[in-house]
Amino acid sequence: MSRSIQRRTFLTGAAALAVAATAVGAPPATAAPRASAAATSTAVSAATSTAVSTAFELPDDRAYPEGIAADPRTGDLYVGSYTTGAVYRATPGRRRAEVFLPAGADGRSTANGLKVDRAGRLWVTDSTSGVDVYDLRTRALLARFDVPGDAPRFVNDLAVTADGTVYLTDSVREVVYRVTPAQLAAARGGRATLTTAYDLSGVVAPHPSGAYTLNGIAAQDGYLLTVDMTAGALYRVDLATGDIRQVALSGGDLVNGDGLELVGGRLWAALNGTNTITRWRLSANGTAARLEKSVTDPALQIPTTLVRRNGRTLVVRSQFDKGGPMGPGTPETPFTVAWVHGI
Predict the structure, then answer these.
(1) Cβ-proximal residues to 307 (8 Å cutoff; 6+ apart), any chain
(2) pLDDT tens, 141-154?
(3) Three-class SS of residue 227?
């Protein structure tokens, strides 16, 4: 099946149902609403006075970027291509990223979720198979973790906790996988199998068969937060007890929720299909969240994920609705990552 069908992370409801067969020959899905955009010019939302401007460009005119990760040691940013599996690196002060890992590197066909851990390793999910781990200094592939079994899967996003453990969402199986530092050490130089840490299939709200659910994931001291993009719900997973509960949201929901960024007591979310970024204030224990601000702007160009740098928000502009998996057309090039000021 084509990558464009395998990679519909952003569809919800009836549209997600159209791709329900996921890894096994699904028919084309109904496209989500298209959004007009001004990719390289600065746009200002009159309702919020929030400016959207270009932070840097990507070198591939078919990039269709999805994930982004920041290296806290250097300030470098890494962006993955959902269409080719390439990874780009943007260094501070430069307006154009470079190819860090080429298209198809190590057999990877997609690159959606990305994270850099404290040891200088880059984690790159491939929705079709699992996750690859790279040494940022040498670009060497350190290990690969594969999804167990042959059932449909969609490895989507990932988060790293303070102890170096990595958690990954599966949007089809509705589970969270885990890779511990010990598992990574044992797999170095080879392959291993992902293990399921938490099963949310009995917790998420009823949804059409095959709809994509778990997407973005973020880590806080003692717990994880993950979004159900179809129902618009947020779930809290207690790392000590394994308790899973729905977070009480006030002021809005997280329908179309994609990438998450959690800093202190605030949570940022990219809502891809509606060109929206939201900011939430969490309660002290993470069991409730209140919507503080919401920005909707077509200049976001189907935002898939985001990262906070120096008090500002960097957002990936996927353009999935322009010749990508959300509809036909021609993307505006070059593809870019945006600064969003005011949220």
Answers:
(1) 68, 69, 70, 77, 261, 313, 314
(2) 999 999 999 999 99
(3) strand
